[in-house]
Amino acid sequence: MQATRRAHLQIHFCVLLWGFTAILGKLITLPALQLVWWRMLMVTAALLLMPKVWRGLRAMPARLRLAYAGIGVLVSLHWLTFYAAIKLANASVGATCIAIGPVFLAFVEPWLAKRRFNPRELMVGVAVVPGVAMVVGGVPGSMRLGIAVGVLSALFVALFGSLNKRFVDRGDPLTVTCIELGTGAVFLTLLAPILPHTGPAFVLPNHHDTMLLLALAFGCTLLPYALMLVALRHMTAFGTQMVTNLEPVYAIILATVLLGEQRQLDHTFYLGVAVILIAVFAHPLLNRRLGPPRGAELLGTTESHNVVD
Length: 309
What we know:
Elements lengths: L2 H25 L4 H16 L3 H9 L2 H27 L2 H7 L3 H12 L6 H19 L6 H24 L5 H19 L15 H25 L5 H8 L2 H13 L7 H24 L19
């Protein structure tokens, strides 16, 4: 199978799994900070049991470990705001807000990935904005704060996605995941005392939350996160983000079936999601018709590392 086609399939599989993250985030009763902290801690602990990860850590230059640690801080802020948006609104709204990411990426990725600005990417990214506006108009006023926090989450995902693209071929995916999520857990530990909360900053989850956290950590985090790092070697961060705009579609379908959220949203919301979906398919169609954007980096030229030995 062609490397690029395999990368697209991997990303679509990741998106399907990510569609469950919003559902699990709504079902888990822990606040957003504790939810993200436990999620990162569980994944990091599992990775540290793998000899391959320790070999990768020893072989990686200290400067590169520091770069991945910085990306990990952005990952933690993205997840924290993403789950805060879900708690403040609902799973469908929180996931849909991430679709604004291409607008941020159109500006951020050329700067961070050291390539030319591409007006076509901005055009497709801007095409998502009317859909997001319709989504905002289709939710109750009490959910508007959740939308604002969700848009902030989209900015963080644009930043760490672009940086991951820049450094993606310099380390083993599982080792990179361990550094980023481990650093994220440490950062949230330090951040917790200055964030508003009631009661202890961190508590042991009950049995219900523990089972859901395990599903979130391993089925919806470890596997797709590592696959994403591999697939990014053959795709631009912008192209990847456009595919991940399908996540709201999966999340909304799952939220409708599992949570009955359609009762909270009107037809304008779903019309907005349709506009977002059209923009998702417009990007590959434009590239097929007009060719790769001038100045964009070549698709991955190195063989992807295996996720596991």
